[in-house]
Structures are given as structure tokens and as C-alpha cells.
Amino acid sequence: MSDATEFRSGEAVHYDTRSTGRWIFSHLKRYLWLPILAIAFSIANNFGYSAVQVLIGRGFDVLTRPDWVTRDLLLVAGSIVLAALVQGLTGVGRNSSFEFLAQRIERDARAELFESLLGKSQTFHSQAKAGDLMARATNDVHFLNLMFSPGLSLIIDSVFSTLVPLAMVAFINPRLLLVPSLFIVGLIITVRVYNRTLNPVTDEQREAFGELNAGLADALEGIETVKSNLGEVREGAAFARRAGRLRDLYIKVARIEGRFWPLLVFAVAWGLGFLHAAWLWHSGVISAGQAVSYMMLYNAFRFTTFISLFAFNLFQMGQSSGKRVLETIITATRLDENRLGRGGRVEGRIEFRDVFFAFNEGDKPVLKNISFTIEPGQTVAVVGRTGSGKTTLAKLVPRVFDASSGQVLVDGVDVRQWNLESLRSQTAMVEQDVFLFGKSIAFNIAFGHSKAGPDLIEAAAREAQAHDFIMGFDQGYQTPVGERGATLSGGQKQ
How many angstroms separate the CA atoms of 413 and 277, rounded? Predict the structure, then answer.
């Protein structure tokens, strides 16, 4: 991965990007106390649940004794209430810990992704699909949240809802471990095969969602063109095709889940466990109350069986989404902000020396062997046919793009040796295709000048001869311009 970037926040946190798993874990490590706390709560929660089941069996033994007394029964009942209280409180703690963790990881991953997008070169953004990037920044990042809560939360809870009841079963009588042990081994094998089968399908799901979102964004952004060229039917059919592919992948996941029948396996194992417990009771190895406790503890495995496929599905979706997010973050960019580069005031001398430029390595150059000089204060017109590279030529000065070979110099210094922020803050471009943020006129005028107040904004508007038409709006400088400046004419946008 290249460390080059056009923008880097001073508060940026560095994560391990060598693989998807390492990257997700490096996010987790920042809040390691939360999963540790959640695991402690999960153990206590399942201990409380298991204690209730054991105590119910003990109460059954008390009631079936001919010499039972009320005090013994009240003691068991009080213990059940106490254990249930522990179970309830620790359940809240476990769920809250995982939710806090999931929300923080989603926030951090989204911030990391957005900062990486700010630092990508214009070449990257010219080739990337905006809708797909939006899908990665919203839906894919949110699946990282779901991966931890409820995904990882349920996986960890299912582990301890298996181990703790097993320990309680061993405490009652080790001979009772036979059937549940065989069942758990079978469940582990089943989940492993399920994950291997599901993984490539979830990768396809996330890609299909990105394509669906990209197509939708293109159609909405160009809705005026679509309507004026009677393209509604064509765009509708294309959207239906992408949506159909995504639907088919979700159905494919459902079919994979359906093939494993975990609850049917549990029902068979539960029946075998009942027969085993009945045989041990009949042989005098365990009491009737212990048999009751055993069957109620065995019932805890139902949660593990029922939730395992759902939880691992969320976990796989989170991994696939994390892979897409990380793929965007680590995509190398050609440009670097060069914080230690030349700063200071730009005098305005621009020189091109034998400049060649192609958008991608190996492509045919758009600009070939360009050399000329512009002195400070000089006005130069660059003319040529459509597509000859006039706009691209201008974009080499503020380093929107970098020359493939040759040099572009400002005040005798190669633009690559300038501090990028210093260079761009003193360079302005007004293009035919103007982009405006869907906020107020004042916001768009002040964009790039964080300290611009109302007086400076008005002065800039007057200099551009825009003050009069701005004041013609009811809200003046606070008038919203609409999406991409839809409420303004072409001339007003410029």
C-alpha cells in the first residue's frame, strides 16, 4: 500500500491494513476493554441461567421427598430469584457493551474511509462509481456494526451458553456429557462447512448491492437527461436487472441456510439426551431432579443451534463488507500532500516543460510534448477542438492531476515540490461544468476559506458582479441553491 495521500488529518489513527481480519481487529483493539467486559457479562449471564435450571431440579427433588419442609423450598425459590436477577442484569451489561463497541467501530471505520476518499487523486474519483462508493461508506460500514452487534455478541453468547451448561452437566454427573458432547462436535463441523459455503455468496451480495447503488445514483444524477431522451424504460429495465441479481443472491443464501436443518438435528439430539438421562435415572445413577436439571440445561443448546447460522451469516456479511471498505482505503493514489514542500506566496509564473499526460499508465497520452511559459499578470488563451485536453492542461497546475512525464513549474519550482495545500489555496479554477453544494449561496462562496465572514463573502460577490442577482432572492445570501445548484441558471452558477 502506498502512503501517498492528498489529505491527512492530524487526528488520523493508523490501522493495520495487511488483511481484512487484521484491519477489523485493529479497530477492535482500540476498545479492547469493551469485549472483555462483554465476555465477563456473558459468562455471568449464562452462569445465572444455568444456576436457575439446576435449582429447579433441586426444587423438584425437595418436593418429591416425603419429609420436605417449607424452609428448604423457600431457600431454593430465593436462590432461583437471585440467579434470575443476575442473569437479567448481566444480560443488559453484555448487550450494552457490544452495542457500544459496534457503534464506535462503525463510526471509526466510516471516518477512516471518508478521510481516505478525501486523499484519493482525481484519477481515482474519475474512474470510481459514486453510487458504489456511497454503498461502501453507508451500507458496508453499517454491516461492520452488525458484525459485532448482534453478530459477534450472539456468537460469543452461544459459545458460553454451551460451555457453562456443559460445566453444570458435568457437575451433576460426568456421565451425562456423552450425548451433548457428540452433538456439539457435529454442530461445530456443520457451522464450519456452512461458513465455507456461504463466504463466496456474501462477497457477491455486497458487490451486487454496490452495483445496484451505483446504477441508481447515475440515473438520479442524470434524471434530466434520462427524461429528455425517453430513457425511463431502459433505465427501469437496467435497475430491475440489478435488483433481480441481488434478490437471487439473497435467495441463494436462504437455500444454503435451509440445507443445514440445525433445529432438526437438535431435536434428534434432545431426544437421545432424554433417553440417556432416563436410563441413568432408572439405573439409580442420578435423581429425578438431576434428570430434570439436565434436560433443562440441554435445552440451552437450542439457542446455540438456532442462532449459530444467523450469527455467522451476519459475521460473514461483515467480513465481506469490511473487505470492500478496506479495498477502497488501501487503493494507492498518485499524489501526496507533501507537507514539507515549498510554501509561501505564489508570484504567478507558470511554465510547462515537455509535458506528457495520460489518465492511466499505458493509455494513449492526452497531452504530448507541451512546453510554454506564462508570466505573472499575463492572460493566455488555450484553444483547441473538443477533447484536445485544454481543461486537463489547466488541472496540471494545482495538481488535480500530475504530469506523466516532463515538468509543470510554478515560480520556477516543480509543482510536485510545492506544499499541496499552499499551492491549491492560491489557485482558482472556474469551469463550464460548475459544481455547487446543495446549501446556501454564502456557503458556496466561502467554501475553501473557513474564516470568511459575511463582509468578505459580500465583497467577493460584488467583485464577481453577483451581488445584485443574489439580493434578488428572498433569502439573499442564505438562499439554498438546491442539489448541484438546480435553482440557479448556468451563468449564475459560474
Answer: 86
Taking Cα atoms as reference points, which of 122, 16, 7, 24 lies closest to residue 359?
A: 122
367, 315: one domain: no
What are the φ/ψ torsions at residue 353 (nearest 5 degrees)?
-120, 105
d(CA 381, CA 99): 59
Q: Is residue 33 part of a domain?
A: yes
**Residue closest to 47 by CA, chosen among 83, 20, 13, 77:** 83
Q: Are strands 413-414 and 405-410 parallel, antiparallel or unpaired?
A: antiparallel
pTM of the full structure: 0.72
List, for residues 364-416, the tens digit of each pLDDT value: 898 999 999 999 989 899 888 877 888 889 888 988 888 889 999 999 999 88
CA distance 395 to 424: 11
Cell match 446455540: residue?
Answer: 304
Sheet with 413-414, strands from edge to edge, namely 367-374, 350-357, 405-410, 413-414
DSSP for 336-353, please give it: ---TTSB-S-----EEEE
- Three-state SS string over 202-268 comes to HHHHHHHHHHHHHHHHHHHHCHHHHHHCCCHHHHHHHHHHHHHHHHHHHHHHHHHHHCCCHHHHHHH
Kind and range of the H or E run holding 424: helix 420-425
Based on the fold, state whether residues 82 and 119 are members of the same structural domain: yes
